[in-house]
Write a structure and sequence with these properties.
Layout: E1 3-6, H1 10-21, E2 26-29, E3 43-45, H2 48-57, H3 60-68, E4 79-82, E5 87-89, E6 106-108, H4 109-117, E7 124-125, E8 130-135, E9 141-145, E10 150-153, E11 155-158, H5 165-170, E12 177-189, H6 190-195, E13 207-210, E14 216-222, H7 228-235, E15 247-255, H8 256-259, H9 263-267, H10 271-281, H11 287-293, E16 302-308, E17 320-322, H12 337-356, H13 362-397
The protein binds flavin-adenine dinucleotide.
Flavin-adenine dinucleotide (FAD) binds near residues 45, 130, 336, 337 and 341.
């Protein structure tokens, strides 16, 4: 069986790692010219399901490398404040991983992508911008790329993200819905934030500030357990990991109605202008909070519109199967989009391996995958929406 994966993001690469380990032939076609990531945030929360999926797909040394470069274990839990830094709310979430020493609860996205690429040099083809697919009379699928080349396979996995071109061709009406929230992501060096007076209680936990003005801020630490280059030297010297200072990822949410800018104007703002917008909008906030924004790095600051797929639906049975954001986009508010893509990759790896071993019919395997995927992805979208809508409600009533 020849498997083509369109998109070398988190889900597509995780699937390739899993299939590679199981000895199943796979090729990933990625539009980016190289392994350098795009602007999709800096720190990724890893859920218990996400960690289990990553571990199932990665060989042992890469699991060790991922754990070694993950965030210092953060057991302090989420704390929510108002803009005067008065504590509001401290929910506790059950985590079946409890006190496990090697628990992976957050990772740096660039480091994760390089770990997912490790050992796949002959599997991932960069610079292949998928344009359209074609079904042949032989029952195979041909993917056509912008550079005029094409590839033929027995199965095509659409792992090309939230603006999926594969989906556009097969299910053009399945567009994710705009939730009306605009988010500014930024990266703030930890040392600078601490020097600027970030209160100690906020140093090592996920903190959330709910402004009475309707603006919301999330602040999440990424403190590497081990320097990536040092960990790579021990576990996978060819992984090409790049060192990074510890940092906070900040997430500033504004409702469109409160923004006072239309999308054309908002998305044209430079990183510097976006940083200034956050500083201006939080002018009345506690000085210890405001101080840290002045250290946000403009070149790392960018804006996104929050969107969600509603409802999540299985695609038609056949040789084209979706994975990840291509079929279930969700706002990052829940921190489960990537985890769900990894879960898809783990399920597909398991089922396709059974097909290759002659233990399961292909059609049966794909139907089982899509049924389970729709169920857990719907839960993920609903949970993420609940959190995002909580934000919308706050803004709307302010
Ligand atoms: C700022 C931000 C923060 C987030 N934080 C979290 C978090 O903490 N936890 C979490 O679980 N999720 C988080 N998410 C969501 C998460 O990033 C996505 O759900 C996840 O990346 C989806 O994986 P994917 O493989 O489906 O798509 P992607 O990772 O987007 O990968 C798609 C790949 O397909 C490629 N591609 C696209 N079009 C083509 C084409 N035509 N031809 C070839 N290749 C193509 C792209 O270049 C890309 O490499 C966050 C998202 C954002 C934007």
């Amino acid at each position: 069986m020849r498997i083509l994966v369109i998109g070398g993001g988190i889900g597509g690469l995780c699937l390739a790692q899993g299939l590679r380990q199981a000895g199943v032939a796979v090729t990933v076609y990625e539009r980016d010219a190289s392994a350098e990531g795009r602007r999709q945030g800096y720190r990724l929360r890893i859920s218990p399901e996400g960690e289990a999926g990553l571990r199932a797909c990665l060989p042992q040394p890469l699991q060790e490398l991922l754990a070694a470069t993950s965030n210092v274990r953060d057991d302090a839990g989420l704390l929510a404040y108002d803009e005067n830094l008065v504590e509001q709310w401290a929910p506790r979430f059950e985590d079946p991983r409890a006190d496990r020493e090697d628990k992976i609860d957050a990772v740096d996205r660039v480091t994760l992508r390089r770990i997912l690429l490790a050992g796949l040099e002959d599997v991932v083809v960069f610079g292949k911008n998928f344009e359209r697919l074609e079904r042949t009379e032989r029952g195979t699928v041909v993917a056509h790329f912008e550079d005029g080349s094409s590839a033929e396979g027995d199965l095509l996995i659409a792992a090309d993200g939230t603006n999926s071109k594969v989906r556009e061709q097969l299910r053009p009406t399945d567009q994710p819905t705009d939730l009306g929230i605009r988010t500014i992501f930024s990266r703030i060096p930890r040392d600078a934030a601490v020097a600027a007076g970030l209160p100690e209680a906020l140093h090592d936990r996920f903190s959330y500030v709910i402004g009475s003005d309707g603006h919301h801020l999330g602040l999440m630490p990424m403190t590497f357990r081990t320097r990536p280059s040092e960990a790579a030297a021990r576990w996978w010297p060819g992984a090409n990991l790049v060192d990074s200072d510890d940092y906070y990822m900040s997430v500033f949410n504004v409702h469109l109605a409160d923004l006072g800018l239309d999308d054309a104007a908002f998305f044209a703002l430079s990183g510097e202008e976006l940083c200034r917008l956050v500083v201006d909008r939080t002018a009345a906030w506690h000085p210890d909070l405001r101080g840290i924004f002045t250290h946000a790095l403009p070149e790392t600051t960018f804006a996104v519109a929050l969107r969600a797929t509603q409802p999540v639906e299985a695609w038609e049975a056949g040789p084209v199967v979706p994975l990840g954001d291509a079929v279930h986009s969700m706002p990052p508010s829940g921190g489960v989009g990537a985890n769900t893509a990894v879960r898809d990759a783990e399920a597909l790896t398991r089922l396709l391996t059974a097909v290759v071993r002659g233990e399961l019919e292909l059609a049966e395997a794909l139907a089982e995958y899509q049924k389970a995927m729709v169920e857990y992805a719907t839960e993920g979208v609903e949970m993420s929406l609940k959190i995002a809508q909580w934000s919308i409600k706050k803004v709307a009533t302010s």
